[in-house]
Each structure stands twice: as C-alpha cells, then as structure tokens.
Design a protein that fits this description.
two-stranded antiparallel sheet; 2 helices; mainly beta
Length: 124
Amino acid sequence: MKFSVQEVDLTDEDPDFADAELWFLSDGNNAQNSPISTEVLKRDAGTFIGKPIVAKYDKWTQDVTSHVLDEVIVGWIPADSTIDFKEKDGKTFAVAHGIISKLYATDVYEMFKNHNYRSVSVEF
C-alpha cells in the first residue's frame, strides 16, 4: 500500500550525504482511507529500518513523481536506526533517521534543501 507522509528535515554538514528526519507514517486515517491504529504503527514501524529511500525526479516539475516502476534509490534508513514516535496535529508519527546521497541524488537533495516541507510516500 502507498501512503503519504508529512515532512522531511535535512541536516547539511557532510559533503556526501544529508541526514534526514523522516516523519514517514502516522496513526489514524490517511489519503487511501486505510486507517492505521497506534498499536499497529508502533508494532510495525521498525520494519522500515534498513530499507532504501526511492524516488523518481522530474526535472520539469522539479519534484519527485508518484510511485513509478523506474524509481531509483536516493538514500536509505540505516540498519542501526531507531524509530521514534512523536505527536503532531493530534496524531502519532513514526519518525526515522534517513540518509540522502548528495552525489547520486543531487536533484532530490536540492529539492529538499530548497523546500524542506514536502509530502512523501511509503510503500508496504
């Protein structure tokens, strides 16, 4: 299933990689009308650890597209990451540390750097 997420915050100190705080999934209802309980969110959010971050950048819109078959890996959630749960707007969010490549995903990195609040999606 594919769900939208709320935001990504970058830290920009490393010349090769950007650290990203990914608010990747929340409890409650979502755009796909598939509600997730807080219990399921907390039980299963850890399955995102060690997974790639994928995207397809569209140079004409200067944004990433919706889910397409030719997405590429632009980063990852490191295997040693932990999932935090944070409250915002009456929802509980699963929040993970991610890494975005500045060298191999420059357009995606610049997109988040220039406009740091974007909707992103998860697939599971």
